[in-house]
Amino acid sequence: MKAEYKVELYTGIRPTGDLTIANYIGAVKPLVELQKQGAKSLVFVADMHSLTDNEPAVANKFCREVVADYLALGLDPNKTNIYIQSSIAYQVSYMTMLLARHTSVSELLRVPTLKDKLKNTEHPETANALLFLYPVMMAADILLQRAKSVPVGEDQLAHMEVVRRLARDFNARYGDVFPIPAVQQVKSLRILSLKGTGKMSKSVPGGAIFLTDDLAKVAKKIKSAETATEGVMTDSLQSHITLAKELCGDPAVHLNIDSIISEHLEGKQVMGVFKDLLATIVVDFLRQFQTRRAEIVKDPSYIDSILKEGASVALANAESTLDLVRSSMK
């Protein structure tokens, strides 16, 4: 009997703080666009994953906040089920344990994202073990839900190879249990810090635009953002152009942006005009988002009902998969 998929599209969100405009462009917008194409999705808030580098209180604080953000950004609960990862903590932990038997420490040390994190922050001898198991827990999440496709950015491709390898190895030993999830790489758009160095990040709030920022504060941040001298195209300016076009889909506005940039490359002093336009686009987007979000959080039972329904779907899928796993291993 061929292993069957249960979920068409599956992805997770780490609840580690307020979202930035870059988080929207890189993670939420692609999911909303896939949803518009008719994909039935299952999304989970990865509070267990966030324990690799955060205290439980941080994850608990932001779980519901990030759900409200995603709903306000366009995630449709009629097309997408949402659940908190820890609502099926037993199933995730049990599957992680089973899959860990098929993973070596040396393989985990070769995962590029882990190597980068260790190089930048700590050494293997002092890193917490949960950090090493991150790809294995990711595999547990995906395989429990029997996901057909997983949209990921470039930084998660190595993790997905671990997931797919674990599924194949488990099937080779115990039978056709797991359907192999496909990797759906989403467009990688790198939005840089307004300060001009590195990507936009929560860790450098002065260079980031948060979805919850005061609108006057946002306009001020953009006015002081690094751009480029006349006639020069820089990474910072290109990032700002991408930001403007991703937030505003109006072709007329895009043509206006292109016209301003053409004048800039001809040596004209138009960066003030460009910043004014960028500020208008960002503030308009945030004003609409914040209005929708305020409506969503008025009734706490609304998010409760969405998470309850999502947990019911996730639990049914996970228990069904574990039944297959247990019977195959006898």
Automatic annotation (TrEMBL):
Which SUPFAM superfamilies would you find in this protein's record? Nucleotidylyl transferase (SSF52374)
- Keyword tags: Aminoacyl-tRNA synthetase, ATP-binding, Ligase, Nucleotide-binding, Protein biosynthesis
> Matching Pfam families, A to Z?
tRNA-synt_1b (PF00579)
CDD domains attached to this UniProt entry: TrpRS_core
The EC number of this protein is 6.1.1.2
Signal peptide range in chain numbering: none
Q: Which domain of life is it from?
A: Bacteria
Gene Ontology MF terms in the entry: ATP binding; tryptophan-tRNA ligase activity
Q: Which GO cellular component terms are attached?
A: cytoplasm
Gene Ontology biological process terms in this record: tryptophanyl-tRNA aminoacylation
Q: Which PANTHER family match?
A: TRYPTOPHAN--TRNA LIGASE, MITOCHONDRIAL
Family named by the database record: Belongs to the class-I aminoacyl-tRNA synthetase family.
Protein known as: Tryptophan--tRNA ligase
Organism of derivation: Candidatus Yonathbacteria bacterium RIFCSPLOWO2_01_FULL_47_33b
Q: What is the lineage of its organism?
A: Bacteria, Candidatus Yonathiibacteriota
